[in-house]
Amino acid sequence: MSLGILTNVAATNAENSLNNTQNSLNNVLEQLSTGSRINSGSDDAAGLSISDGLTANEAALTQSAQNAQNGVGLLQTADGALSQVTNLLDRAVTLATEAANGGLTTAQSTAANTEFQSIVTEIGNIGSTTNFNSVNVFSATPTNFVVSDGTTAGTTTIAATVGALTTASVGGVTTLAADTLTGATAAAGQTAALAALTDVTTAIAGISAQRGAIGANVNQLNAASNVASSEEVNLSSAQSSILSTNFGQATSDLAKFQVLDQTGISALAQANSTAQEILKLLQ
Fold it and tell me: What mean pLDDT is predicted for residues 177-201?
């Protein structure tokens, strides 16, 4: 091998190897300090793309579970209000049955009718004032609750409709507001009370059916929320396996690159020192 100082091939090779070692060492130190195996696109482009996609899926699923629970809250609000309506109608049944019986004085029939009318009015008030998040619950229009993983194929819309509740529509009965427990004569009052009793009984059945439909929607939304939460957990686990630093492997690499870094510096120093041998030729 000829002697020269213009190009120190051994030193250049040692320097390149040292640079590579230090880059690898810095990468391992970054993985250990951040806990993440992928800190830039150059670390694992495909893995980063998958991880970012999973992050979006997780965000959509987390909010979807909340969407479903918001829907459950709305429907449970409606169900609670209808429970009170049922209690009021039960009292109306008592009043109508009492008024349909003979032997009541005019004052007694009037008192029963006054309470009956106040019940109908209160049911209307419940229908108009019950709201969830400032939205009227008894709107009689479908409310759509969306559960999604962020993709078109993974999106489900659950429609729930809470029927109208007004004095003109109680459990599907439209004549309750016009019912009365009194009449021009005692016999007419009894007849009117019997008609009111029939309407109230029908309204109770309608309210019961409405609560059953609400309960079915609540179960569906709870199931959708549970599925979304479970899927979010599984995706989070999958993302962690892609992103998380393997500390066993990383610490092993750290020890390896620390040794290589030290030996590389020593090798570079030795390669540079060989050029000093040329000076001996000039002595």
Answer: 94
